[in-house]
Request: fold
Amino acid sequence: MKTIKHCNQWDWGVSILITAKQGRAAVTLSFENENPGVCFLSGLSVVPEIRRKGVATALMRECIKYCKQSRVIFRIDLSAKKEPFLLGFYEKFGFQEIKDEGPVVRMTKMMRP
Reply:
């Protein structure tokens, strides 16, 4: 899968947009100055007509690979709707629930001990 990365520097930190399939699938990685070593994954989305074809899986693998290669990221955090298919998707990549916030669940993945 070919991906394109767009990086933006902000006062609060850095955000990276990873897109695939001519922009029909995307995810954002954010790195805040106040939380060094932590990546926040947000906005993972795939347009309906290309879902169930491994695109979201490929984007997640790209995110995890990027964080591993950085050698300074020790944790990835995210928030997900409390829907079994979403939680199962993230659990497949090693994310664990850390906080139940009603309709949303906070999850984390440790990159190294």
